[in-house]
Amino acid sequence: MADRTKQTRSEWEEEVITHIEETFETTRSDAQGIIDSQSFKLAQCWSRGLSSEDTAQEIWAAATGN
Questions:
Q1: Model-level pTM?
Q2: How many domains is the chain partitioned into structurally?
Q3: Spatial contact of 59 and 35, defined as CB atoms under 8 Å apart
Q4: How far apart are CA 20 and CA 35, in angstroms?
Q5: Is 2 a domain residue?
Q6: Which of 11, 24, 30, 38 pairs with 63 at a CA distance of 20 to 30 A?
Q7: How far is Cα 56 from Cα 22, in angstroms, rounded to an integer?
């Protein structure tokens, strides 16, 4: 993982997608769809300075109710 303070938002989002894809064994298109459906939560996580791993967990929980 790159230093969050030196990442662009698009780099960070790419890492979030990859973490969702790998951690929860989803396809890339499903991971992107999950991100798209949780755009507000994604923006909140970026604003809070969360890592891509923590964001992936929060996005997954919000999308699945788990």
A1: 0.89
A2: 1
A3: yes
A4: 9
A5: no
A6: 11
A7: 10
